[in-house]
Each structure stands twice: as C-alpha cells, then as structure tokens.
Design brief:
Length: 428
C-alpha cells in the first residue's frame, strides 16, 4: 500500500495552507482546519456543512460509511486512515471543484457494474487525488467530466480473480487536461482514457491486468516512462489522433490475444524510445493511419523477442519505421489477407538476422534487408498450419526459401538501408 499523508502534528493549527504548485491547478487556501475527527458521523456532518472547515485532518483509524463531497475541501489522512464503505455503493463520491484527497486508504465498495461502484468517483474541476490506496472495490478511481484533475502516487488493487468481472482500475471519461502519474495498478481490468483530450499519463506501472491503457477518442494524449507488464494488452489506441508514446516498457503480453501495442483507425501517432518485448504480438496496425498524410511513426524503439514483431491489417501507406532495433523476433512481419508491407516506409533499422555486408564501413548495409517468408504464405492459404507457427518445421521451410529464393513467391517488406549495428536505445 502507498501511504503519503503528512504527520498529524505537522498540520495542527496551520491556517492559510497553500496547496502545492507541483500539480496542474491549485486549490484555494484553507480558512479553517479540523483535526482528529473522531467518527464517520462527525466527518460526514463537517463535509456536508457549507460553512464547515476548508481542511479536515483525519486520524489514524477506520471511518465506516460512504462519503459524498459537494464543496471545495482538503481531506488529509495519516498512517492508518481508512475510509471503509458500506459495500453497497461508491465509497467516496466527489461532485465539486477544488477538492484534494491525500493520504488515505479507500476500501469496500459495492459490486454493481450498472452504476460502476467505485473506490473514488470524481466530477468537477481541479480535483487532486494523491497518496491513496484503493482496495476491495469494483472500480478503482474514476474521473468523469473532471477537468484539469490529477491522480498521483496512488495504488489500485483489483478485486476478484475473474478479469472480465473486475472493474477498471483507473478511468478517465471526458476528463480533459488531466494527469495520471506515478501510480501502480495491479490485477485490475483496464486503465481507460475515453472521450478525453490532452491527457498525460506518465511513470505509471500496470501489471497483471487486461489493458495496460485503452485509449478511445482520446486526442492529443501522451503516455510516457511507464511499465505495462504481464497484461493481456499493453496499450491499445482506437479512433484517436496525435498520440505520443515514449520510453515505455510494453512486455509480457502473452496468450492468443497478447499484444504490446495496437492501433485501430488512429492517426498522427508517434512511438519513440519504447521497449516492446516478449509479447505474442509486438505491434498491430489496423487501418492506421486512415490518411497517409497523418503518419504513424515508430522511431528508435526496441522491438524484441516477440512471436510476431509487426502485424498489419488494412492499409500500409503512411507507416514509418526509422532507427528501430528488431531483435530476435520469431517472425518479423505478418500481413492479414495475404498482402504485403511494401508500402511501409522501413528505413535505417537494425535487424539481428541481417546477413548483408558493409564494404565502405559507413554503418549501413550495402544490400537491402528483405523479408520473404514462405511459411506465412502457407499459413494464409492453409489456416490450420498456424498451429505449427514457431516450430522447427516451419523454420526449416523459411530456411529453404531463404537459401533457394525461387520458393519464396512474395516479398513482404524491404529496408533499403539497414543498420549494421544496433542503435543505442536506453532501457526506460
């Protein structure tokens, strides 16, 4: 659990406390302070009073009940502060501006998917949730119609072993200009960013969940410096524009649906400095971009040890791979429907299986890197052969096609200027 509340003695008697300027937007100064609230009933009454204290300090014990905040308020806990719900609804419901929740554990929500019972559900502006631990809840923390809101340094643990019956760990819905940073989500369903503009997600860890992050109609978003590991899907982006993903680790997405990062009908995307490692499918592009002028760019990423490094579905125009390091993938590229990827702008990448030479020693291979795989053609013509993907037998088929090119009827992909040595790409 994460505990970030300030010590009780450090706050007793403080007047005019200014909220930290490190978050986007700031809460107004306190006009009064209440310390060591003894019971949930007292807390509920203080929160409900429009003339109540601007800041409330909680003691290090359990407050039993579901709480609703409808006015500007700073609610701070100390080590051992717990807001424990009734198990019938959302534990902490916020519908106000300029609210800060800091240093509490929130637990025991209801179990209704129809109304998305949550640990914390927030609506308003400039709401900050920090140093919070959420457990034994259906949905974790939801920002819905929450503008310029911040979630940081918090820990959400999912409830239940059935992934499909869990709620989302973190949800942003119409939460424009919001920030999610330095959080840990474990054994949840998804992090969701839907119908939201200019969201920033950074330095988060998501593990053992379904979608590490699922963007939909989420324009101008940034996801960076995060570790999305051992989920079914690392990042999936749908119907979104101008997304940037940089310096993330997307690893360990196994199983039939395992995928490091995927795009469906998304445009103007940049991936830079990511490590996409040891997934069933490293990258997937479905009709992305829709317009070749709004290119999808992979620049300086490590794409390694995946069963399939790249899979394309639909158009291949407007896709660029520059300066990436393709290391020891079982299959470099697959194209659904038996097509090719010759329209992909593949230039200046490194491939561990490149067998060319560099006579002028300029670091660039003098012979183009080409992908010709007979096994992929056979799998398209005979789907039952997919069962043998990755086996020695299929490897021998490709080796024969490589040694005797006449057997490889179709060229899938070309990099005309492959790198002889792997580029230096730091591990995030």
């Amino acid at each position: 659990m994460i505990r970030g509340g300030l010590g009780l003695l450090a706050l007793v008697g403080l007047v005019g406390l200014t909220f930290s300027a490190t978050t986007r937007g700031s809460a107004p100064s306190s006009v009064a302070s209440e310390t060591n609230v003894a019971s949930f009933e007292e807390l509920r009454d203080l929160v409900a009073d429009p003339n109540g204290p601007r800041e409330i300090m909680l003691g290090g014990h359990v407050y039993h009940g579901d709480l609703e905040i409808k006015r500007p308020l700073v609610l701070r806990g100390v080590k051992g502060t717990v807001l424990e719900g009734t198990g019938t609804s959302t534990v902490l419901l916020i519908d106000a501006k300029d609210v800060t929740i800091d240093g509490v554990t929130v637990r025991h929500s209801g179990h209704r998917h129809t109304v998305e019972d949550s640990g914390i559900k927030a609506k308003g502006e400039r709401i900050v949730v920090a140093n919070v631990s959420v457990e034994d809840v259906l949905f974790g923390i939801s920002f819905e119609s929450c503008q310029r809101c911040v979630l940081e340094r918090s820990h959400v643990t999912g409830n239940g072993d059935d992934m499909e019956l869990r709620g989302d760990g973190i949800k942003l819905w119409e939460a424009n200009d919001s920030i999610v940073r330095d959080n840990v989500v474990d054994r949840s369903r998804d992090i969701v960013v839907w119908y939201t503009r200019r969201a920033t997600l950074e330095r988060n860890t998501v593990r053992r969940s379904r979608y590490g992050t699922h963007f939909m109609y989420a324009h101008d978003a940034v996801v960076r410096d995060s570790h999305l590991e051992n989920n079914i899907v690392g990042i999936f982006v749908m119907y979104s524009m101008r997304l940037t993903a940089e310096r993330n680790v997307l690893a360990g997405a196994h199983g039939a649906a395992g995928m490091g990062i995927g795009f469906k009908e998304s445009d103007a995307v940049v991936l830079r400095g990511n490590w996409i490692v040891a997934n069933t499918l490293g990258t997937y592009l479905d009709t992305s971009p829709r317009d070749p002028a709004d290119a999808v760019r992979f620049e300086g990423n490590v794409i390694a040890l995946n069963d399939v490094a790249i899979r394309l579905h639909g158009a291949d125009k407007g896709i660029h791979f520059y300066g990436n390091d393709f290391r020891d993938n079982a299959t470099l590229i697959e194209v659904d429907g038996g097509g090719d990827a010759l329209g992909v702008d593949m230039r200046g990448n490194h491939f561990t299986d490149y067998e060319g030479y560099d006579l002028n020693r300029d670091g660039i291979g003098d012979v183009a890197y080409e992908v010709k795989t007979l096994s992929s053609e056979l799998r398209e013509e005979h789907p039952s052969l997919k069962f043998f993907h990755g086996t020695v037998a299929m490897g021998i088929i490709d080796a024969v096609a490589h040694a005797v090119p006449i057997f490889a009827a179709q060229k899938l992909m070309v990099d005309p200027v492959p790198l002889m040595n792997a580029p230096k790409i730091e591990v995030p």
